[in-house]
Amino acid sequence: MNTLQAIILAIVEGLTEYLPISSTAHMGFTAALMGMPESEFLKMFQVSIQFGAILSIVVLYWKKFFDFKNFNFYIKLACAVIPALILGKLFDDKIEAVLGNQLAISGMLVFGGVILLFVDKWFKHPRIDNEKEISIKTAVTIGFWQCLAMMPGTSRSAASIIGGMTQGLTRKAAAEFSFFLAVPTMLAVTVYSVFVKTWGEETANPMKGYEMIIQDQEHITLFILGNVIAFIVALVAVKTFISVLTKYGFKFWGWYRIIIGIILLIYFGNTPAPKAKTEENNIETTMIQHK
Question: Which run of H or of E encompasses 131?
């Protein structure tokens, strides 16, 4: 991965993380369109730069996150994130296996887009317009909805916003609670991917995320640059999304997903996938062992 590729991926992450269009899908498509072969560092980078996007929410809603008198807010987030932590750990390997399947992810884009076309019609009578009106039970329910996004291409934002609307939240309230819930969820994912998870366990050189980052100065630079750019871009994207969602609803995002998904299904259906670096490393290791 070179600097330009890292910058482009970070821009895509910042633009799409909080939109109901799947940042994972868009970063995967972008990497594939740039001809980037799969590698453990690339996969770790795509997860770890979510940290920059997390900080954008904390900055934009700093009064909410640092209102220590509203302790119930922290309890609701803690309870809501539990389903994702448990199921994410249980299905980590299966999720990673799908990350390189662009056809499956493209299909989920289309399917999710169709759902978004009807969301505004399904939930016409919201009754909750403020985070303080959300009960712990409702927060946990939204947390389970968020788990649907473990299938790459679904969109964590779309799943949790729709989950909120099923519980009577307005579009704006559902979107904002989705943003709040993203902070502990993605922070946990980022910490796990950088400090806990061992990447490339089936290769000759498995490493923790932080070991890949500090492996050389270039990786350190790319990691820092990616998070800074994701942070800046996400600041703008979140404000724009709230405005568009409140005014126009989900239909625009639904058609966007359907059109992009169909285009990508056609493209990836006729394009051979680039060979992963991990596969090349395994082949080279086998050849060495046989010499």
Answer: none
